[in-house]
Fold this protein.
Amino acid sequence: MTNDEAVLREVDQAVAEEQQWEFFRRNGSALIGAAAAIVLGVAGWQAWKAHQSAQANATAIEFRAAIDTMEKSPAEGRKAFEKISEHAPADYAALADLRIAASLAEAGDHAGALASYRKVYGKDGAPERLKEVARLRAAELSLADGRDAALSDLGGLTEKKGVFGYYARELAAIAALDAKDYEGAQEMFLKAAGDPNAPAPIRQRAEELAALAAAGKAGVNLTGKAQVGDLLKALDAAKKTDASEAPKSESAPAAAKSDAPSAQGDGSKDQ
């Protein structure tokens, strides 16, 4: 390398260093501020996550305590769950409302239980699976108020795939049977009976109920209300048997996931 080349390289290096220094002098404050913001953002995120974790643990403990209280005194248990519903995250709040509704249903408060179930499926942010549970439970209760009330509570669940969709369609068929729409009920039951993907208990009941609907269509006098009461008892028992087939709610808190498929059965009778 000649002396001229070495000098030119040193000049180029000096110019580059000067340009870098000029850039930093113009933008240094902004760069330092951005770096500080990143550090503070990471620290803030970690603090928020720690707070969320602590809050979830506290809510889980409170939820467990409310369950214990409900077992001793349903009225006091409902009050405890009402507090959770007011301040807890959406998943725990929905589970609390399901517990309240189940307890009210057990106590014979038809209107109160329906209001609580409807609160769950009408609430923004509640896990979709818990909303579906609430719709099924509400429809079971509102069958006593007529077919239209039951279908309103079921909403779009009758069009969905999965276990809860099958139960919703079964309830819709039962509502048709109770309304003496024997032809419509028979069609729905036959469709369920021939669906290989439907839960086995639903297929078995559908075969029997299709025959019952056919008898009604032929003019046989059926005692609709008594039949529906018996069917709902069988349906509730079947849900407990089939709970393992239902998809678990990914959004529900792990400590309380088991509540979802059997929410109505969790309430205790008033002492």
